[in-house]
Amino acid sequence: MAAEAEGLPLAAPANTRRPTATRNILPVLYTLLAAATFLAYLAVRASEDTQPHRFQHVPLDADVILSRCAALYKTPGPPTGFSARETSERFESDTKPTLVRNATIWTGARNGTEIVYGDVYLDKGIIKAFGDIPETLYTERNDVVVYDAEGAWVTPGLVDLHSHVGLLSAPLMRGTFDVNSRHGPVLPWLRSIDGFDTHDDAFLLAIAGGVTTVQVLPGSGNAIGGQAFMFKLRKTSDRSPTSMLLEPPHSLNGTEADHDEPLRWRHMKQACGENLRRYGNRMDAIWSFRSAYNEARKIRDAQDTYCAKVEAGLWDEIRGQFYPENLQWEALVDVLRGRRIDREQQISNHCYEEVDLDDIVRLTNEFQFPIASFHHASEAWLVPEVLKRTWGGTPAIAIFATNHRFKRESYRGSEFAPRILADNDIPVVMKSDHPVLNSRYLLFEAQQAHYFGLPPNMALSSVTAVPATAAGMSHRVGILQKGADADIVLWDSHPLQLGATPRKVWIDGILQVGSDEDAVVIGKGKGGSAFQRVPSVPNWDKEREEAVKWEGLPPLGTVKHSGCVRFRNVGEVVVRDPEAEEGLRSLFVGEGLGDVVFDEGRLVCVRTDCVNVDGSDVVAELDLRGGSIAPGLMSFGSPLGIEEIAGEPSTGDGLLYDPFLSDAPGILDDKGGMVRAADALQFGTRNALLTHRSGVTYAASSLAKSSTFARSPYTLAGLSVTFRTGSAHALESGAILKDITALHVVVSRTAPFSAESRVSVSTQIAALRRLLLDGEPDHTEIGYWFQKVAQGGIPLVIDVASADIMATLLRLKDEIEEARGSNMRMVFFHATEAHLIAEDIAKANVGVILEPARPFPHTWDDRRILAGPPLTNDTALVALVDAGVTVGVGVRDAWQAPNTRFDAAWTVLESNGRITKEQAQAFVSTNLEKLLCVGEWIGQDGGDLVAYQGGGTFDLSSKPVAVISPGRALVEVF
User: Fold this and answer.
1) Are the beta carbons of 559 and 587 closer than 8 angstroms?
2) Residue 415's closest CA among 381, 385, 456?
3) For residues 317 and 320, what is the distance between their CA atoms, to the nearest angstrom?
4) Positive or negative torsion for Cα 21, 24, 28, 34
5) Contacts of 909 (CB under 8 A, 6+ apart)
6) How far apart, in whole angstroms, are the C-alpha atoms of residue 351 and residue 282?
7) What is 158-250+267-532's CATH number?
8) What pLDDT does 32 receive?
9) What are the alphabetically sorted keywords of the record (predicted)?
């Protein structure tokens, strides 16, 4: 009743092939039957001369056959007394016991509501005790390592239920792409363990984010992609993939399983929808499933028939026959047997849309097999009753927090999905799909889910207990309990606080990050009780209801007021000021709450001055509840406004001409095929409107479209445009602020998965040199605009990651400036390795727009990252700022733009107090405006302001509620 009262999900009843009591007693009965049969066999041998036809001819291995048949009805799970074990099989003998004292322990138990204050004792790879621990447990040991948590939070290690770590290993290369197979739609015999790369640079990064256990899945390019495995991310002394496995099946390498041991879970990856197009359409895909499961059903039925005869003692009828099995189909046969723990099964099913979810649910009922979890599941929140019809019980739903709209089947994804699923008693898992999202920031997915309404206990459970349970591993990981694996994380702040960073991470009781010898400062600037509490978040009830009502596509319009608008209970007002530090000035802060009034978008009065404003003139009032008013933010780097759906070519601009591969059409009379992003601009895209509603009112977009795995394939990426994200069309006043913002080029090595090799880096540099030295006539587009760049008329933005290539570009800049007597405006975008030459970049007066702000070694050009705490003291951004570089923060994908303010907040939170909030604001506003030379266009009327209810720009407690636009003489209310 307590769970019902709190609105927490309850376990759904599971359909079963046999009653539970029957399943539990069958192994015992079979053991007795085996003994009786063996005695009967001895009787046959003793009396076969006188009574040859009264008994069956019992084979010598009858006990083995009976045991194998009995195993068909066992369920996977830990051995009896598992929690009382003394030593983990993963224990390494030189590991010292560890005592973490004075901790606030979130155990993950009781649906994530249990919190214990006290100590945690780790020894021999397991959790020996937690809470109030008697000293007698460890006082006789003289080798115990003691850490004082000083009241900080301890949680179980995070569990990432959907990862391709080790199969798409960093840095990404063609030689490490072991995630999909082209050998057919149905491949249940493939195994992720067989492609797992132990040299993946992502292991340590994920651990640095508190992730200790991952389910490594084959890709989603096949209907049945193969078998998945659970891995611990700790690299062992054995150095093998096998040694990193968590509870592999007993028969992993084809050895005969011990049928007296409890079964271990096997995991399978399935997929449906768009990713299977190489093998046909949706109808083809579902037929491939039905055909495969029918084949598996034949084998299962043959096994049942064989064992029924064994049960009946009809040995003569199976004389000369072998137990029916097929190595290719054995995994699917296991699926059909529906082995389960409660309602959690073994299939992870990639599935986005209502149609696909319904297809798979019908399939489960046709062949009577369960699903452990649906993954991605962008529309699962729209069909909770369909999910509940899954045979065997309702699956968990593993989803992204805000990564939506990247292809058609994800278009209706919603940030409110986790809360809506939870309200329908459906288990919620937040996942990374690493490297689509960097697994290091798995916890950020839970933080965002909490921000948009998922209760804190469920948000934390979504990356610990729920995925562990879905994988059948909750007896070992995901829940902090006696006898579980010694995987714990000590955090510098409450785990749901934005920017929460592990101080220390243990896997199997072995410290992985946070050694005192590393001398990395963690958590400086996060002192005080506020950082140790669950963050308060806004109320999204109205928006959540609208999302359901409109099936994921609610209207995103605003109410526009051209008259006088009063904001009450304002805690802070920040405005642009070119003369102030960072280009920003605070009008009041820390002086109590007051009113602020705008008339036609222009500031009329602040605080006490507003008492004289005639109330009859006020057309609208908003209570900010201690919130703030600050400059609108700016997004840069994504194709925002150039396309609607990244993976749907029909919604974008189309392919550019690449003059390195073929001549541009003669009709252009331009060898470079120079084009303008303004000509392809689309207004009213959902990504742009959601970006606007998140407080990002300006965007600069180019045609240099990148992907998860590679930069843009085009060296010459055209001319970018700066526009207002909330405008309705290009002819609306103020919609396009600067139709030609910068000239964009991409300089990189060949992407690992590109269909064609790029021309060499040396060729790309040679082409830039020629073009900047009047290589083309100035009456052509390419000649004219490269001349403008060389003269310093517009910025040259270079998408580049490698420090070596950046060094070459700095030399090229010197060469061009000396030859032409000019000062070029050069900006490095992406710039993963820029910290290695930060002082040289500053000396050359070159700006940097980092993307991502929290780096990852995606490709060879990106490999030398500066990871930040808990691995390094400096971040790339801190290193650049300290060197005097003007820095902005950008994004790669349009769906990321609404998260701009949180990306900026991270720069403060992981800097150990070396980056201020004012600097963070500048990274995504005035610094970008300066680097792209759009400040005078934006700031000529003061620029847009955003009103936040409940907090400041970077607070999880705050919610953008209005945009104040003096340039358009109005206030927009969301």
Assistant:
1) no
2) 381
3) 9
4) positive
5) 498, 499, 501, 525, 526
6) 12
7) 3.20.20.140
8) 54
9) Membrane, Transmembrane, Transmembrane helix
Do the Cβ atoms of 832 and 867 come closer than 8 Å? no
Q: Which residue has the tokens 């959601």?
A: 690
Identify residue 53 by its one-letter amino acid code: H
Task: Give the three-state DSSP class for 288.
Answer: helix
Q: Can you state the percent helix, strand and coil of the chain, rounding each to 5?
A: 30, 20, 45
φ, ψ (nearest 5 deg) of residue 807 = -65, -40
Q: Which candidate, 80, 62, 70, places its Cα nearest to that of 257? A: 70
In the chain, list all ranges with CATH 2.30.40.
556-632+943-974
Amino acid at 419: R
Whether the Cβ atoms of residue 160 and residue 463 lie closer than 8 Å to each other: yes
**What region does 604 belong to: left with phi over 0, alpha with psi -120 to 50, or beta?**
alpha
CA atoms within 13 A on the CB side of 165: 37
CB 949 within 8 A of CB 593: no
* Bond into 171 cis (ω within 30): yes
Say which amino acid occupies 946: V
Residue 273 φ/ψ, nearest 5 degrees? 95, -150
Q: Specify the fold of 633-940.
A: TIM Barrel (3.20.20)
Task: Give the whole-angstrom CA distance, residue 510 versus residue 157.
Answer: 12
Strand 224-232 with 633-636, pairing: unpaired
Q: What is the pLDDT of residue 260?
A: 67
- The CATH number assigned to the domain with range 556-632+943-974 reads 2.30.40
CB 427 within 8 A of CB 397: yes
How many angstroms separate the CA atoms of 211 and 233, rounded? Answer: 8
Collapsed DSSP state (helix, strand, coil) of residue 722: strand
**pLDDT for the residue numbered 35:** 53
* Token pair belonging to 112: 């994530």
Helical residues (DSSP H) of 368-455, grouped into ranges: 384-388, 417-423, 442-451
Q: How far apart are CA 705 and CA 893, in angstroms?
A: 9
Tell me the one-letter amino acid at 136: T
> Could you tell me where in the chain the CATH 3.20.20.140 domains are found?
158-250+267-532, 633-940
d(CA 759, CA 316): 72
Q: Give the number of other CB atoms < 10 A from CB of residue 444.
A: 24
Q: Quick one: residue 734, left, alpha or beta (phi over 0 = left, psi -120 to 50 = alpha)?
A: left
Q: Helices H, strands E: what count in the chain?
A: 24, 34
Whole-angstrom distance, CA of residue 336 vs CA of residue 330: 10
Token pair of 266 as six digits? 């096997």
The DSSP bridge partners found for residue 963 are 946, 972
- In angstroms, the Cα distances linking 683 to 90, 398, 562, 640, 736 are 56, 32, 22, 9, 10
Confidence (pLDDT) at 64 = 87
Bond prior to 538 in cis (omega within 30° of 0): no
**Bridge partner list, 621:** 566
Nearest Cα to 195, choosing from 230, 169, 220, 172? 169
CA separation for the pair 355, 361 (Å, rounded): 10
What does each C-alpha distance from 911 to 137, 449, 901, 905 come to in angstroms? 39, 24, 16, 10
Between 761-772 and 781-790, two packed helices, what is the crossing angle to 10 degrees? 80
Listed residue (590, 608, 583) closest to 952, CA to CA: 590
Q: What is the pLDDT of residue 721?
A: 98
Give Cα separations from 20 to 23, 301, 311, 945 (angstroms).
5, 21, 19, 62
Q: Which pairing describes strands 115-123 and 126-131: parallel, antiparallel, or unpaired?
A: antiparallel
Distance of CA 498 to the CA centre of its chain: 15
Amino acid identity of 712?
S
